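User: Fold this; tokens only.

Assistant: Input:
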Amino acid sequence: MTSSADSGGPAPATTIADPTPIGLICLAIGCAALVPVAFGLSLTPAGLRTAAVFCLLFGAGGQLVAGLGSLLNRNLYGGTLFTTFAFNWVINWWALDGLSRGQVPDAGVVFAVDVCFLLVFLAFTYGFGFFSSLLMVFLIDIDLLYVARIARHLGGGQWLSVVIGVCTVALGVISLWIAFALLINPAAGRAVFPFPGPAFRPRVRP
């Protein structure tokens, strides 16, 4: 998600400013809009439509800007993750908007896609461990969210909705922490928001 400079390596040449903080702040705002829905506090048509708009503008729009900007800067990991997130947030918008009118997404299709997302994010979790342990925690939180979603699909009980809500809150908090680390730390000249280094080291080829 971030450049190699964040993990102690040389910074690659960039075409535009690092769009990662934009994507993370927008992700946090999208998560905030979903929190009342996740905890069953804003399930009215107005609440669902309001959350849907935030998902579309900040979730999808902000992630797409960050994803395309990262690809422009030759940041494959960040570009892939943010762009994938962007399309997923469009689905969130569509689902919430439909629910506000009484239209429920097909559970079988949602389940199959959630399983696919879990496999994708598990691979990303390992990959981001080579950049920062905090990024790895960020992905682990997403993994847990999708495990809870899949378990709920399989009849695991409504208590899993609370787990999903907690993971959503944690995702927003971690997103803001990383964004502030990228924005504030360079300006302050010190680690106001600590950003740990890699959890793994790549194997050195002989």
